[in-house]
Design brief:
The complex is a heterodimer of chains A (255) and B (254). Chain A is an alpha/beta fold. Chain A has two domains: 174 residues, 3-Layer(aba) Sandwich (Rossmann fold), CATH 3.40.50; 58 residues, CAC2371-like domains (S-adenosyl-L-methionine-dependent methyltransferases, Single Sheet), CATH 2.20.130.10. In chain A, a hairpin with a 3-residue loop joins strand 8 and strand 9. The C terminus of chain A is likely disordered. Chain B has two domains: 178 residues, Rossmann fold, CATH 3.40.50; 52 residues, CAC2371-like domains (S-adenosyl-L-methionine-dependent methyltransferases). Chain B is built from six helices and eleven strands. In chain B, strands 3-2-1-4-5-11-10 form a seven-stranded mixed sheet, with helices on both faces. Chain B has a four-stranded antiparallel sheet with strand order 6-7-8-9, with no helix packed on it. The two termini of chain B are 19 Å apart. Classes of the chains: A alpha/beta (255), B alpha/beta (254). The interface between A and B is medium-sized, with 25 and 25 residues.
Chain lengths: 255, 254
């Protein structure tokens, strides 16, 4: 993984404002449908990996016993304020080990897109698999599909309220299967001034077949749903077999 | 006035009209023509716009007036010339231009006088305006922000988003006595080319209303402040040149 984006560090406290357009409620409704369709009946426990500021967990916790993992201290700080009493761990999605299993593991909003290689993706998927109970389901929102990449694309988002103006201009470059999105941020605070931040966010695009292959290698039975939360991405599902076939059973203890 | 002036009038001149796409030139020109009918007594239809920029006001005014323009910035004039190929557009500094011709109306809009750096310079500009007016002619000056109306510490956002071009200008202004210190950041995104970030500081002069009127008077004009200007919440000054030429004082300062 390259250096973590400003968005998850200096800008963490503005993250929810930047994404105020995002319909978390609709996404959580859809996630629950997916869990009913692919997961264990009576699923109770839910681990959200790359939980960010905890907006999905905030809705999920009404029905599930929730735990979150994120690599960013700044994002977790926001999530902790939102979710008192919910266990939130700071960890890398390629290596985390919580020592317990869940009915559902989710990893949303293309957080896996920040991983730099297929090897890293496979490591993350294996972590998801190891944290699932037999019959449990992983729901992963992948990065933009290669067929949907829009090289040369420009995008501006602005947010304004009396206390804050945020501007983000993005420009996408595609080289092979990698996206390089250059972000220019302006953060304006009345009485204080304007800050400029610049970053390039690398992403690895993997097509649905490749994603399914990586899921399979992690020991999960994959499905790809073309209709995801965002038009250009889809959703990747991985179901943990009830009886592990062809793989040595892991010890019962820690995953 | 700084050596080159703001980025918007130079490197970013090609984007000026798009950043200002929200500006309602049509209603502004309606109001300008209304004021001309009401206050101009020289009887003709010649109109000079000083600091004409990309020529958006002139483009509309020329339907009813015989128009000319002056601007200090070559990149802005280049755009105005494309827009108005048959209009006389000259490069000139509003403090010192001399076209050797007088007009029925001389306008200077959109707070352009705020780019001058002292009251002495404002005086020089007003004297130029007066010199280019026929007896009974009218100067219309849309002043820069009045110091009593300026709210420091605020942010102003302008944006344009097209299929192949995205523009953002975010500015922040503070006050230093009667000057506004502005910091502006520009983001320019071009499809298939990438992003640019430009940043500038600019200082503009806020002249109190009473001083503006006094300076116009000293230039030999009879000024009047109108609370209803061209844009909501912004006033305007009209200043008539007396028809009795004997009342015109000699050229101020030269």
């Amino acid at each position: 993984m390259t250096q973590r984006p400003h968005l998850y560090r200096e800008l963490a406290k503005y993250y929810d404002l930047q994404y105020s357009w995002k319909d978390y409620r609709a996404e959580v409704r859809r996630l629950q449908e997916i869990v009913r369709r692919f997961g264990r009946s009576g699923s109770r426990s839910w681990l959200d990996v790359a939980c960010g500021t905890g907006k999905h967990l905030d809705l999920l916790r009404r029905r599930y016993e929730c735990v979150g993992v994120d690599a960013s201290r700044e994002m977790l700080r926001v999530a902790r304020r939102r979710l008192p009493g919910i266990r939130l761990h700071r960890a890398d999605m390629r290596t985390f080990a919580l020592g317990r299993r869940f009915d559902v593991v989710s990893c949303l909003f293309s957080a896996v897109g920040h991983l730099d290689t297929e090897r890293d993706l496979e490591r993350a998927f294996s972590r998801f698999a190891d944290h699932l109970k037999p019959g449990g389901v992983a729901v992963v929102e992948p990065w933009i599909l290669p067929s949907r990449a829009k090289p040369g694309h420009l995008h501006v988002r602005t947010y304004q309220d009396p206390d804050l103006t945020l501007v983000r201009m993005a420009y996408s470059v595609v080289r092979g299967r990698r996206t390089f999105i250059r972000y220019y941020h302006l953060i304006g605070v009345p009485g204080r001034g304007i800050r400029f931040l610049e970053e390039v966010d690398r992403g690895l695009m993997v097509d649905p077949e490749g994603l399914k292959r990586l899921m399979r290698r992690a020991g999960l039975v994959p499905h790809f749903l073309a209709r995801g939360f965002t038009r250009d991405r889809g959703l990747l599902i991985g179901v943990k077999p009830r009886a592990a076939k062809g793989r040595p059973r892991r010890s019962r203890g820690s995953p | 006035m700084t050596a080159r002036g703001p980025l918007m009038f130079h490197e970013l001149a090609p984007y000026y009209d798009r950043l200002l796409e929200g500006k309602d030139y049509r209603s502004e020109v309606r109001r300008l023509e209304e004021l001309a009918r009401r206050y101009c007594r020289s009887g003709g239809d010649s109109w000079l716009d000083v600091a004409c920029g990309t020529g958006r006001h002139l483009e509309l005014l020329r339907r009813n007036y015989s128009v000319a323009g002056v601007d200090r910035s070559l990149p802005m004039l280049r755009i105005a010339r494309q827009r108005l190929p048959d209009v006389r557009l000259m490069r000139g500094d509003m403090r010192s231009f001399d076209l050797g011709q007088s007009f029925d109306i001389v306008s200077c809009l959109f707070g352009a006088i705020g780019h001058l750096s002292s009251e002495g310079e404002v005086q020089a500009a007003f004297t130029s305006f007066a010199r280019h007016l026929r007896p009974g002619g009218l100067a219309i000056v849309e002043p820069w922000i009045d110091p009593t109306e300026f709210r420091p510490g605020f942010l102003h956002l302008m944006r344009h988003e097209g299929a192949s071009l995205a523009l953002v200008r975010l500015s922040y202004s503070e006050r230093r006595a009667n000057r506004m210190r502005l910091r502006a950041h520009y983001l320019v995104g071009q499809r298939s080319q990438g992003l640019r970030h430009l940043e500038e500081g600019d200082t503009t002069l806020m002249v109190p209303r009473a001083r503006l009127l006094a300076l116009l008077q000293r230039a030999g004009l009879q000024p009047r402040y109108l609370a209803r200007g061209l844009r909501r919440g912004r006033g305007l000054v009209v200043a008539m040149k007396p028809t009795d030429a004997s009342r015109i004082p000699p050229r101020a300062h030269g």
